[in-house]
Specification:
This protein is of the alpha+beta class and 125 residues long. The chain has one domain: Alpha-Beta Plaits (2-Layer Sandwich), CATH 3.30.70.100. Helices cover 18% and strands 32% of the residues. The strands form two sheets. It has a four-stranded antiparallel beta sheet with strand order 4-5-3-6. Strands 2-1-7 form a three-stranded antiparallel beta sheet, with no helix packed on it. It is globular and about 35 Å long.
C-alpha cells in the first residue's frame, strides 16, 4: 500500500495498529551514553515480522521528564512475539551495560491501539 503523508509519499505494508511507549527516566549526566546504546543497537527488532518503526525521543527537560522509546507494530500479537523471542533477549543484552545510577527510577511501558493517524492524508492506488 502506498500512502500520502503530508507532502511525502511513503510505502507501507499496513499502517501502524499497535504502539508501545517505554518511559525511561535517565539521569542527565548519563544521557549521552544512553542515547549511544540506541544508536549502536543490534537492530534485531527491525527484522521481526510485523515491526514497523522505532523512535527514541529525547525529553525537553531531561532532569524531570523521561526519554520515550516508541515502537510501532502491525498488531499486538506481533509485539508479543517479539517480547517472547530469543532476539528480544539478545537485543536487550546491552541495556544492562549502563550502571544503575544512569536511571532516576524504573521504566514504565505503556501500550496503545491506533484509532486514527492524521499523518496519513489519503490512500494512493
Amino acid at each position: 500500500m502506498t500512502l500520502r503523508w503530508d507532502r511525502l509519499t511513503i510505502s507501507l505494508v499496513k499502517p501502524a495498529m499497535y504502539v508501545t511507549m517505554n518511559h525511561i527516566p535517565v539521569n542527565p549526566e548519563h544521557a549521552e551514553r544512553f542515547e549511544q546504546t540506541f544508536l549502536q543497537r543490534a537492530r534485531l527488532v527491525d527484522r521481526m515480522p510485523g515491526f514497523i518503526r522505532n523512535l527514541v525521543l529525547r525529553p525537553a527537560n531531561p532532569a524531570v521528564e523521561p526519554y520515550i522509546v516508541m515502537t510501532f507494530w502491525e498488531s499486538e500479537a506481533h509485539f508479543r512475539n517479539w517480547v517472547n523471542s530469543p532476539e528480544f533477549k539478545e537485543g536487550h543484552a546491552k541495556s544492562g551495560s549502563l550502571p544503575r545510577e544512569s536511571f532516576r527510577g524504573h521504566s514504565q511501558l505503556k501500550t496503545f491501539q491506533v484509532v486514527s493517524d492524521s499523518a496519513l492524508l489519503e490512500e494512493i492506488k
